[in-house]
Every structure is written in structure tokens, then in C-alpha cells.
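Blackboard transcription, Thursday session:
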Amino acid sequence: EAQVTQNPRYLITVTGKKLTVTCSQNMNHEYMSWYRQDPGLGLRQIYYSMNVEVTDKGDVPEGYKVSRKEKRNFPLILESPSPNQTSLYFCASSSLATNEKLFFGSGTQLSVL
Amino acid sequence: KQEVTQIPAALSVPEGENLVLNCSFTDSAIYNLQWFRQDPGKGLTSLLLIQSSQREQTSGRLNASLDKSSGRSTLYIAASQPGDSATYLCAVSPPNFGNEKLTFGTGTRLTIIP
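(Written on the board underneath:)
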């Protein structure tokens, strides 16, 4: 089954404790991206990657890091989480062919205390 | 900067009725427009993608239209069912870009009343 898998689904942590949210896709997609979703603000892009070792900032990259060492994986790293990073996070992927639909993971609900 | 608006934020409709969801965007220069569905506790699922050169796309009971000149798209759902209850989001991409530059609306939460 074609899918984007995120882990964990729920995460509660404390300020300053480094964490990683994993994302993996099995569709051989070149493009992968991270979004955060907040009430009233909609989906905002954090970082994206057009292929292995190619990453770029989205609209809200501050406080986040990413890496793309393998085509299927695109982890999101919070080196020193803060309460304003409490949010619902989504990973997404697609091929780079013209007009391709975007596939999303099920989301990670992060709470930073 | 592109802004995408979806009004109303919430809509309740009796089962069986046809309904229309709205999406407005401020910059008519777009590459494509996508409609997504988001169920509680789940990610987004792409429903329809309309290329800028197209006027509409259909999938089953769903029909999406695009009027670039007026900056509007509508998602028509025929014969609504309780299973259609979800939040529906639209997103647009600028010319010469694909999914890496999508701008999303904040969505319309649809409830179908049995």
C-alpha cells in the first residue's frame, strides 16, 4: 500500500529536550515536505526537499532542522523545543512529475511543556 | 503574496442534499489548484487537482471548478452522505512551481446531518 508513515503519532515533551519526528514514504517520491497546522493559521510549510541531499526552507523554518540522506526518509528535528512549537505536524510527499497529487502522513501531535 | 480564503469555516447540511464549498485566491496566476479532505486524527487526502488550463475536474460525486480570472474555485458534492463529514481544504501553487510552493486555505468543516 502506498503510504507516508510518520512516527510518533503523539508526543509530549519538555522545553529544551531534543526530539526527532520520523517520516518515511514507499512511493519512490523525490519531493518531501514538513508542515505544521495550527488553528486559524492553516497549514504552513517548515522545510522541503526536492531530492536526496537537497533541502530548502519553507515559510516557518526557525527552530527546526531536516536531513535527506535517503530518498524514502525525511526526519524533522527539533534541537531545543519550545512551547510555541506545540502543533500538529504533517509530512507529505509527491513525485516531481507535472501536476502530481500530494500524499500526506497521518500527523504527529506534539505538545511542548 | 498569495492568500487563500475558504468561507464559511463550518457548514452543516442534511443528508442527501447537494452542496458547494468555496475557495478564493488573491493572485489569479496559479499553476494548479488542489482540493483535499482531512478527517479528524488523520492526514490530508488529495481529492481533485485542476490544472490552470482546465475549468473542472470530476471524481464520482465530486466536481471541482476553477475560474482563474475571478480567483475562485468551488467543490460541488452531490447527494451528500454522513461519510462526507470532514474538513475540506483547497491549495494553489504559483506558475512554474509544483507542490513545493503550495498555499493552503484554512478549510471548511463540513457536517452532514443524518
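Lecturer's comment: Chain B touches chain A through 21 residues (CB under 8 Å).
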